[in-house]
Amino acid sequence: MPESADFIERRAKAIEVPAGFLVGAASAAYQIEGAVSADGRGECIWDRFAAESGRIVDGSNAQVACDHFAKFEADIDIMASLGVNAYRFSISWSRIFPEGRGAINLKGVDFYRRVVDKLLDSGIAPFATLYHWDLPQALQEQGSGWLGRGVSDDFAEFAGAAASRLQDVAHWTTINEPWTFCWWGYGFGDEAPGIAGGPKSALTAIHHALLAHGKAVAAVRASNPRAEVGIALDINNVSPASGSEEDVSAASRFDGCQNRWFLDPLYKASYPADIVELFGQDAPDVLEGDMAAISAPIDFLGINFYRRSVIGAGEEFPPLGIRRARPQGRTTEMGWEIWPSSIRDLLVQVSRDYRPKSIYVTENGAAFDDRISAGGQILDWDRADYIVSHLEQVLEARRLHAPLKGYFAWTLLDNFEWTFGYSRRFGLVRVDFDGGLARTVKKSGQILGEIAMRAGRRN
Q1: Using one digit for the tens of pLDDT, what is the confidence trace for 346-388?
Q2: Closest of 266, 324, 320, 315 to residue 294, by C-alpha
Q3: Cβ–Cβ contacts within 10 Å for residue 429, how many?
Q4: What is the pLDDT of residues 399-454, one digit of tens each?
Q5: Which of 91, 166, 302, 392 lies at 20 to 30 Å from 111 by C-alpha?
Q6: Looking at beta carbons, which pairs linking 377-380 to residues 24 or more positions away fall under 8 Å?
Q7: 274 contacts 256 by C-beta, under 8 angstroms
Q8: Could you tell me if 49 and 421 are in contact, meaning their C-beta atoms sit under 8 angstroms apart?
Q9: Residue 18's beta-bridge partner residues?
Q10: What residues act catalytically?
């Protein structure tokens, strides 16, 4: 169980938010927007994947989701009432280019322009993410999606078009969590587009995603020279399950695949040699100029963090040869261990090893079943405790000289949680999926808002 409600509230009130620090919420287009065919939006790979029987645990889809497409003004009003000073959202590639390339869909652009205008009018800084897993289906069919090298040029075209038409957005994230959508979508086949191609496919997709990131950095800067550009990675704090040589080696291999495989090319212009050797012929084909593009200097590193990974030697995830140890502490509804100090340790380590210009925690949150009081209040103290505990550690990492500039809670609204459908709730705001999509602010949302208010508005 979490700490008492009074103790959580006292700790939240004791958090001192540094001047200029952003405290906001995050979301993703496919998970909240719905309106999958409105105003010329094209089909994306998750539309197709979710329509396949057995793919989503509760049999649902995101055709309506939270209907944020129609309700975005009210949702932004909720954020404004809470006091958050930043909002990280993603732009649906299929709304801007229904076929992935070619003619731009101006109605799609207009939707996001209205979102940005509303955010700015509300004193909330917009942080736009260009890719949060919703590849246009046409690109998957025509060029094998992220398995085809040409997708990097298509993505750069999309990035430039979005940045040039949304000039008031000062912060752009290129790619969200390439580890996840490439391994689970192209390696294991458990997420869209459902290709179980093993390590070769996953690593090829990752390389093309990183190349797309590098090209998008240049495209965004060419379109909007004042913009800050970065990437969001799902990296873990990795600990060995024991002090044995076998477990320490396994933890290093996992760190190499989960963390260094992305951070090294971004900041050192090369993949880690030990993991390249481990993957052997499955390692991606790297052409001349690729690493120079991938390692183009970025303005910030986004880190999505949900749990630590305690790793020992085993037979999982060949050729890594690992096993994930059983969680020692409390867990979320996802089965993820709650170990707040691990986010501090990770932020300090990344800052020391890679020296990013600045860091945002671009996602951090937890799924729990909501407890609804007799008066209709949602007293999600588990989630409130999770957010307060992790934000305390984020600010401690900042005091230890990690260049932290902001924290985004995942997520604003309960939403379509990918293969879990609507069976897992991460939201600061409850969405009644059985009752007209009514919104109710949860206790966690109120507490995050109270912390954010002390930081003030930042545009």
Answers
A1: 999 999 999 999 999 999 999 999 988 878 899 999 999 999 9
A2: 266
A3: 22
A4: 999 999 999 999 999 999 999 999 999 999 999 999 899 999 999 999 999 999 98
A5: 302
A6: 377/443, 378/430, 378/440, 378/441, 378/442, 378/443, 379/5, 379/442, 379/443, 380/442, 380/443, 380/444
A7: yes
A8: no
A9: none
A10: 177, 363
